[in-house]
Structures are given as C-alpha cells and as structure tokens.
Amino acid sequence: MLDLRKLRYFLTVAEELHFGRAALRLHLAQPPLTRQISALEGELGFKLFDRTSRTVSLTAQGRAFLPYARGVLDQVELAQVIAGKLAAGTAGQLALGYVSSIALSDLFSRAIQAFAQRFPDVQLTLVECASGSLGAQVADGRLDIGLSRLLPHSKEVQTLSLGEERLVAAVSSDSPLASQASVSLAQLSTHPLILFPADYGSGLNQSIEQLYRHHGVPLRAGPTGRQITSIIALVAAGQGVALVPACTQSLMNKGVTYRPLVEVDACAPLLVLTPAGRQSVLIDAFLAVIGESLHIRQ
C-alpha cells in the first residue's frame, strides 16, 4: 500500500522541481526527502524524476503518475473535511416524508431549497407517503421528519404545528359553480365529493369530513384518488368536486376551476412530525429552515 506521506513528498517536489525548496516547504532536511522519494520509486518500480546537479524534471512515468497522486491526496483531504462535518452533524443523510397535498406548497419548495443550499453535504431523500403511515415511519426511524396534515396518536412522535392552509373548491370548468365568485359547502353537497381512499388515513379527508359535520352539511362521497393530482384529474373529467389546499391551484389543469369557499373555517393543518426524544443536529437544522421559510411566507 502506498504511503500517503511519500505521495505528499512526491507532489511537493513535482511542484517545486527542486529538492531544496521542497524540503523547506515540508520542514525536512534534504537528505531524508531524497531517501523518501527513492523509496517511493522503488515501491512503484519506476523513476519519478530525472536529476542532475543543476536540474530536476519529471520523467514520462512521473508526469503520468502525478494526477493520480494528486487525486488520492485530494480525496483524503475531502474525506477529512467530511469526517469533521459528520462529527459536527452537518453532513450525512436526512429522510423527509411528506403527503402529496403538501408537496405543491411554496413553503415546501422554499424549505427544501434553503436546506440544500445551507447543507450541501447532506443527502436529502424525499419520500411521498400516505398520512396514515407517515407517523409510524417517523416513530420507527424510517423517516427523520414528516410533513403531514394528520395528527399522529403515537407518543413516540413529536408534533409541531406550522399553522393552517385555506381550502378551496376544485370544480369542473363546465359546472355552473365555476362562474361564481365563491361557493358554499351546501352548494358542493349536491355533487359527488372526490376524496382520498378511506384506507389511506388522509389528514385532508379528516379535515374535510370535520368541516362538513361542523356545518351540518351532508357529504356525498364520490370516486377517490391516491394523489392530489389524481383527484384534480377526476374533477377535470367531470366526476365530481373536491376540496383541496390553496397551494393546489398551481396545478393549472385544463377543465378545472378553483373557487374560494364561503366558510371561513375551511382549513387544513400543516404539521411537522419528528421522533420524540431523539437528538439530531440535522433534524433541528431542518426545523430551523422550515421555520424561517414559514416566516417568509407570512
């Protein structure tokens, strides 16, 4: 195995092309440096330098070997830097789970961008999940952080509220509702309501169902979609109406019109889930970034 110290000696001599100056840079006497270079040449099986009493030059083999030696030393230096960042908690991996209705929000994209810029040595993995399984994956360590709309029941998960997001009605552009400035739940109740599947454990479903109950409006269940994009596609196909977070309006699907709701309490929560009692510099860093992004939005 090549000695890294000898590679550094070789690189310094190659840069100086003078054993005396190289020895001064390395804080060595010239004879030990010469011996180390000779030993490296013996290990490699070829000469690195042509030497006369006045000049030092790289051999053809030395010139060919130089970039590889430099690459090895650069990688060692990088490894040392990364090791320091790992020890400080500013490098590593972070798994972030989220529900599809949150991925469209400005808050989500701002937080991801800001975190990636601030921690370029962190491998951020994004995992889209159903609300019902998100809390469990945070609790058992498969996910470090979750962005959800459903309050978990596990004591192993800590919940932080980021506030609420307004809901809007998504209706077919052919519907008479599309021509109104706003719509009410009573008007929507005459149409099939497109939701996530019942077994999905959707926090958005829960908020919508609670809203209908609170206002005493019957909910006429329609077809279901497993992603917010699927729900909007069903609306565009004339299969019903939907209540979606306001950020969904960025999906400018042909055949879909978004209208505000009359009911001022039509909102869905935005929650951050983290493992309870688990200390992590990266988790704390992401929470700080998303908090800053939230302040910008407000």
UniProtKB/TrEMBL annotation:
Residue ranges constituting the HTH lysR-type domain according to the UniProt record: 2-59
Short name of any one Pfam family annotated for the protein: HTH_1
Annotated GO CC locations: protein-DNA complex
Domain of life: Bacteria
Keyword Metal-binding in record: no
Family: Belongs to the LysR transcriptional regulatory family.
Assigned keywords, A-Z: DNA-binding, Transcription, Transcription regulation
InterPro entries xref list: LysR_HTH_N, LysR_subst-bd, WH-like_DNA-bd_sf, WH_DNA-bd_sf
GO molecular function, one term: DNA binding
Origin species: Pseudomonas fildesensis
Lineage, top ranks: Bacteria, Pseudomonadati, Pseudomonadota, Gammaproteobacteria, Pseudomonadales
Gene3D superfamilies the record matches: Periplasmic binding protein-like II, Winged helix-like DNA-binding domain superfamily/Winged helix DNA-binding domain
Protein name: LysR family transcriptional regulator
